[in-house]
Model the fold of this input.
Amino acid sequence: MSLLEHSQPAFDHRVVVDPEHAARRQLREQIARLEHDLVSTATSAHPHLPLPSIAGRAGPRLLALGELEAVRDDLALRVSDLRAVRARHADEQAAKRLLIERMLLDPGQYRYYRVCNEEIGEPGCKHWHVRPRLGIIGMLAGWWHVKISSGCPLAWGPWRSPRPRIL
Amino acid sequence: MTGGGEPQEGHVEAAVAEELPGLRLWWMAVAAGEQPSSPELKERLRDLSSRFRGAQAVALRTKPIPHAYRVFFRHIGLDPDVARVPVEETVVQRLKDGEFRSRSVLRDALTIAVMETNVPVWALDADAVDGELEVRRAAEHEPLGRGDDRAPWLPGGRLVVADAAGPVAVLFGDVSASHHPTAGTRRSVLFSLQVDGVPAIHVSEALWTVADIVEDGGAP
Done:
């Protein structure tokens, strides 16, 4: 297998004398950093945040300084918005975690409250549910407890065995 | 179209190279067209489908090579969440269809290459290509492709892959209808675009992956 070598010499940025060219290069570096921030912010949360789309600029072409600035400013704005959304989600998730603690400490005060994994930013189908012990007897006697679900439903359903039966 | 056997570097217009110094064009000729895929190639595509999960799709854009193409898209005025980078486009199609659908030896090989290396490869009918490929800016009202009066006109400055006779594809966009490989195509030209942050070895691997698959018709 042959390797592709760079036969063209890389462009040497040090010899750039045109200030506008240098400004465009800096803007491209800023755009690269912002794109990284945008993607890492969106994917670091659970559930993942949708990436906001930014209008394209009439197909692939070399962008002028003003256009690069507009791309950079749009990206910066979206990164900032996405971080605000992520912070709000984090606060909501922290509040739900605190609620679970309180449910566990005093289930009687949180009758029938239910919190699922997604609400605390975790994957999976587990949920915490405050329910009466022994059904209606516990309801009348004030015996409440937190039931923790056993996870996601089986893919093959409860009526089928995962393994073939040997008769 | 001359050349074949080894990847060759295409010319990049000086003004484009100055603004986008990491951009490289690589191409090679292979003996392949839109013939039906062999059962082995279809099986390989099915294996690739079953190895791919939704969680990987989400994580894809954080990987270095797709990220490099996303950044490049921003640099040339495209939004990678609207005009997706090729590997993400392939993944979205996989999620929509529920599998990588087999279409022909060449197209299946292109799908496998982009999924295994994250580097896009495009194919052209070698008989329709005149001379060597280059990346340049289109002139005002230059047609995309030839041999068809309905060929779309390009606005001036649009970045294109062109041969000696004119543009054959928009950069990371549509390939001219007159240059698409067909069932009658016997030789194709593969080309790939390397951008800043993408190691040359990955581009080489992508081109050779396609070449190897089409040469043996998809047998492992």
Remarks:
- Chain A touches chain B through 39 residues (CB under 8 Å).
- Residues 133 and 163 of chain A are 34 Å apart (CA to CA).
- Helices of chain A lie at 19-44, 65-105, 136-141.
- The mean pLDDT of chain A is 81.
